[in-house]
Amino acid sequence: MTDEQKTALQRFIESDAFQGVVLGLIIINAVILGADTFSGVRDGAGPWLMAVDRGIIYAFVVEIGLRIIAWRAAYFKNGWNVFDFLIVLVSVGAATSGLGALRAFRVLRVLRVITVIPRMRVVVSALLDSIPGIASVGVVLALIVYVFAVIAANLYGPAHPDLFGDVFQAMYTLFQVMTLEGWPDIASQVSETHSRSWVFFLTFVLIATFTMLNLFVAIVVRVVEEDSEPVVDEVMEGQAEIRKEISALRAEIEGLAKRLPPAS
């Protein structure tokens, strides 16, 4: 394959039409995998669904093959390409295996939509980049829960051993409170024996839920904004180049208009 042919193949793969076909196959495959979970659909159209599913797998294999031919070794230097390749590889193994557990991994093909849509790649990259910050907040949150659990086990453990019998039971109960899942019932049960326990629960909810959990959201939002800046800069640069080209075309048109003989 010559460099000219290779460049043409790369342009074809990166074209909107090609990407649209790949995205359409992913969506169709997702619908088929979901429909296959209904026994009525599986019994009535199972062979047809399986045939279409196999066809989509072969199409994905051809697509990956074209990408490898176009970029060769450079294809595997991109982390998203490696992710795409592994998903297709696992899908082929799951489709050709007779084991039901492995066939369940066919649904991983739906994750390919992340590699097709650039904005989704930005979101996933932001989530990965935010892991260090989330881990730091998680450690602080675990310490807060542990401190409150020790306090609760000493204050309310003797009267409510099912909720605060020991520090681990207390941490589990406080985790339920932190998620706001049935925490009024827990607080009401404790208030029957400790009338001022509302102070403890209100303080914990304000610190653990409304403050710490919002920090998780703030970290992810900040990282998304940082990761989106290169994309925004690229769009702005593209718009600036388009404006320059329009200005140049306008100047050429004006120059040509001046060279035209005046109308008689």
From TrEMBL:
Superkingdom, taxonomy of origin: Bacteria
Single GO MF descriptor: voltage-gated sodium channel activity
Any Gene Ontology CC annotation: voltage-gated sodium channel complex
Major site of localization recorded for this protein: membrane
Keywords for the protein's UniProt record, in alphabetical order: Membrane, Transmembrane, Transmembrane helix
Transmembrane intervals: 17-35, 82-105, 126-153, 198-221
Entries under Pfam families matching the protein: Ion_trans
Subcellular location: Membrane
UniProt membrane topology term: Multi-pass membrane protein
Entry-linked InterPro entries: Ion_trans_dom, VGCC_Ca_Na, Volt_channel_dom_sf
Domain Ion transport: 17-226
UniProt cross-references to SUPFAM superfamilies, sorted A to Z: Voltage-gated potassium channels
Name recorded for this polypeptide: Ion transport domain-containing protein
Organism of provenance: Hyphococcus luteus
Lineage: Bacteria, Pseudomonadati, Pseudomonadota, Alphaproteobacteria, Parvularculales
